[in-house]
Specification:
CATH class of one domain: Alpha Beta
Radius of gyration: 23 Å
Strand order of the largest sheet: 3-2-1-4-5-7-6
Bound molecules: S-adenosylmethionine
Shape: globular
Number of helices: 16
CATH superfamily of one domain: Vaccinia Virus protein VP39
CATH topology of one domain: Rossmann fold
CATH architecture of one domain: 3-Layer(aba) Sandwich
Largest sheet: 7 strands, mixed
Structural class: alpha/beta
Distance between the termini: 81 Å
Length: 346
Amino acid sequence: MRFIYYFLSFLLILLYFLSFSPVFSQESEGGPMDKCERILSEDEDITDPVKLEENIAPTDREFYNAIKQSDIYRGGDIEDTFTYFKTSEGQTSYEFLLNAVPNLRGKTVVDLAGGSGPLSKLLVEAVGPQGQVILVDFNEEELSVARQKIRSKNIEFLSEDAQNLSSIPSSSVDVIFCSLGLMLFRPLQPVVAEIFRILKPGGILSGIVLPDDLFNTKRTIFNEYLEAAAQYDSPELELEKWGWGDLGADNVQGMRKFFNETTGFSPDMRVEEFTLAYEDKPENMLILLRGFFQTSYLIRDKETRNELEKKLLAVLKKHQSEDGLMLFQLPFIRVTLKKQTENKTK
Ligand SMILES: C[S@@+](CC[C@H](N)C(=O)[O-])C[C@H]1O[C@@H](n2cnc3c(N)ncnc32)[C@H](O)[C@@H]1O
């Protein structure tokens, strides 16, 4: 009996000392986890473009290449989702974004990361025959949907990367719209420089991004859903750790760090909160939300994807009311700002 007691005590002491060894305390060098913790734990400005170069997270191109490989992804998915979701005034997010800038008639406008073209479709009408719309997206799957849908003389489809808009001359654009793109560009800094270059002095940028307090404040179905999705992260992309888009740029505070007087923009960014909502059966909602959250596209293994979708459906069903429907609300922010006449860094 005494022997067993001594043996167990010895074992406990041994385990205690082993827990300080690198193997147990995860202080070993090398893995991506170490790099991630090191960068995030240092109290540094994570939006600094130089530091972002050290970043191991996927670029937006790698992210979209991964999405396109999915057997369930189709061009136009994101547009389908956002055609159903409406503001309290009954507008789609595209109508809401378009209304940020009055008097578009005759103007040259860019729909940056315009996807399958839901906003461009409205823009060709708004600028009229004397105006010009340029839809930029690097994803051919989305662009081909846009080309089929918008057959107007005053639109050009540009298969280009927002980081290098070499086909668009400097100071040639009156307004740039960007629906759900600014928070996805990775890295964002070269895109900011291109936005500055192509805008005329006094030209306007208006975009839709996520709000600041999304992950920190009261629990909503939105972050319950995100948390459930994050558990099924794709090992190649490590989205759970990194998120997507440029670190710190997926909210209005992050935007202010990129778009400010030093990068040539007006300091008075206009920020307007709005919420999109849609009510449907949980099963239908699950399919619609794939286009926005995109996690399902990143899971190659069908069994794992089914497992993920079962968990997501359970989250949705928790919010189902007696009539069998559930309401999903997506909070967003519309940011609008101007290019100043000169770039303060030059
Ligand atoms: C969330 S979707 C939004 C699409 C569209 N603006 C909408 O709201 O329906 C993001 C789009 O950004 C595009 N995108 C992401 N990074 C890009 C880049 N660096 N250059 C061009 N397009 C990009 C993707 O191909 C995708 O179509």
